[in-house]
Amino acid sequence: MLQATVFTGGSNKYQHRVRLSGTSQVNFSARMISQLVLRKCCRPVFQYLPPRDPVVLAQEPENPTSTSTWKALPIEESESQTRAQSLTMVPGKLWIGLNAYGKQQFMQTGCVFAKGAAALSEEEPIRSTHSDDCLIHATADRNSAVRYTYGAYGIGSGSVLQILVPAVVASYGAEAVQPVSTKSERVDLNIAEDGRAAFFAQKDFETLLLVRQLSTVDGHVSAHLDVADLNLGDRLGRSTKPTLTTDEVFMGSSVDGNQNLTVFGKHCECIA
User: Fold this and answer.
1) Do 37 and 87 have their domain in common?
2) Which of 78, 118, 165, 171 is most exposed by smallest CB count within 10 Å?
């Protein structure tokens, strides 16, 4: 027979007395006795609940005794919220900033064309400008497209096109769309990671389109945005800024114009 007395705090009076019956030839240490006492005195406080299948939970009826209800937080319109929308990159959509000649062609034909038909690698036209570039350059970032179409001292075409990638793939195949903004994508195309091309490809979130033309008729071009609504020249000083950075486009755009372009680009799915 083994008797153990448990004391709590500084009291000299025992609170619980536990009798452990049985015989054993083992010499009990103080640690072993403590463990035996705790097993007798303590009860589990928490009950283990196994994980439930979320599909089964969704099919079960709601608890009728529940008094709490879920409510979505309201979206508060603000300048920060409007600017944040311009940073959103939507999978399946790209942007092209047109130069003056590219805009003229687009307004006349409804198409945007590659500059030429030179046999260039993917790295060469990113590294430097070629007048006979056989690729069409696009970006996943609308602000980058606005920066390019704004041009030197704000005398660019001011036109940005929204491109639907699924339509391009349907016409030319998946191999016609070559994103180069990440390291793994550049490795696949043998673009040197320490070179000028890799720097610009990453900075501009660039995608190369290995096609001769994109058209509104085939659904490649889904929106034509006029960046004049952003009032970049008035807000940033047209005469003193030779070029804009993407950050300046983000911070310097008119809030009302930014909101108009975002809504138009989101809902416009075709061009008449």
Assistant:
1) no
2) 78
**Residue ranges with strand state E in the chain:** 2-6, 16-20, 93-97, 111-113, 136-139, 159-164, 177-179, 206-209, 213-215, 221-226
- Structural domain includes residue 145: yes
Closest Cα partner for 165 from 268, 92, 265? 92
| Torsion, Cα of 26, 31, 35, 38 (10° steps) | 130
Q: Let me know whether 103 and 213 are in one domain.
A: yes
For the chain, first and last CA: distance in Å? 97
Q: Are 116 and 129 in contact (CB under 8 A)?
A: no
In the chain, the percentage of residues whose pLDDT exceeds 70 is 63
Joined tokens for residue 108: 């006349």
CA atoms within 13 A on the CB side of 80: 2
| pTM summary value | 0.65
* Model pLDDT for residues 212-260, shown as the tens digit of each residue: 899 999 999 999 988 888 888 765 555 466 778 888 888 888 888 887 7
Rg (CA), the chain: 33
**Interatomic CA distance for residues 124 and 184, integer angstroms:** 18
Give me the amino acid identity at 250. F
